[in-house]
């Protein structure tokens, strides 16, 4: 088929932060950001980083993409899959490990400042905004009291 790139067979691994905080009334909020290319609502995520544990790589992505500071869980909360189109046009299946990040602050500027939109919303509102079915389920199930120890 002309113009159609083949899909990579083996799922590639990525890491994501699930940023959360409590508003002034004590209500749980999570942060979604837009992807740079498709402008879809997503979690801050990226490829694993050599020399960094997966939860630390997810923490770094949250800083680079949204300027977030906080305490990240060492344990995976859950995983989801999605298809990513690479720069060369190839589509790869990605399995994303999600690490909760209790947000304690946000910088006024960060590496990708101005390149994405940010949205603090309830987990249920966030689930309505994302496209990936398994991510929707993770957001609906997110209860910070059940988050493993933070680092």
From TrEMBL:
<dbReference type="GO" id="GO:0016462">
    <property type="term" value="F:pyrophosphatase activity"/>
</dbReference>
<feature type="domain" description="Nudix hydrolase">
    <location>
        <begin position="10"/>
        <end position="143"/>
    </location>
</feature>
<keyword id="KW-0460">Magnesium</keyword>
<dbReference type="InterPro" id="IPR015797">
    <property type="entry name" value="NUDIX_hydrolase-like_dom_sf"/>
</dbReference>
<dbReference type="Pfam" id="PF00293">
    <property type="entry name" value="NUDIX"/>
</dbReference>
<dbReference type="GO" id="GO:0046872">
    <property type="term" value="F:metal ion binding"/>
</dbReference>
<keyword id="KW-0378">Hydrolase</keyword>
<protein>
    <submittedName>
        <fullName>NUDIX hydrolase</fullName>
    </submittedName>
</protein>
<dbReference type="GO" id="GO:0005737">
    <property type="term" value="C:cytoplasm"/>
</dbReference>
<dbReference type="InterPro" id="IPR000086">
    <property type="entry name" value="NUDIX_hydrolase_dom"/>
</dbReference>
<keyword id="KW-0479">Metal-binding</keyword>
<dbReference type="InterPro" id="IPR047198">
    <property type="entry name" value="DDP-like_NUDIX"/>
</dbReference>
């Amino acid at each position: 088929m002309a113009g159609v790139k083949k899909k990579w067979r083996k799922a590639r691994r990525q890491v994501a932060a699930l940023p959360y905080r409590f508003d002034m009334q004590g209500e749980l909020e999570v942060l979604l950001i837009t992807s740079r290319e498709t402008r879809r609502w997503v979690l801050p995520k990226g490829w694993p980083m050599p020399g960094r544990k997966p939860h630390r790589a997810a923490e770094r992505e949250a800083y680079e993409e949204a300027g977030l500071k906080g305490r990240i869980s060492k344990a995976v909360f859950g995983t989801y899959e999605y298809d990513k189109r690479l720069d060369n046009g190839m589509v790869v299946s990605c399995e994303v490990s999600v690490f909760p990040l209790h947000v304690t602050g946000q910088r006024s500027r960060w590496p990708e400042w101005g390149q994405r939109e940010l949205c603090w919303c309830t987990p249920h509102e966030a689930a309505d905004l994302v496209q990936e079915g398994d991510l929707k389920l993770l957001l609906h199930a997110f209860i910070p009291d059940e988050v493993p120890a933070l680092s």
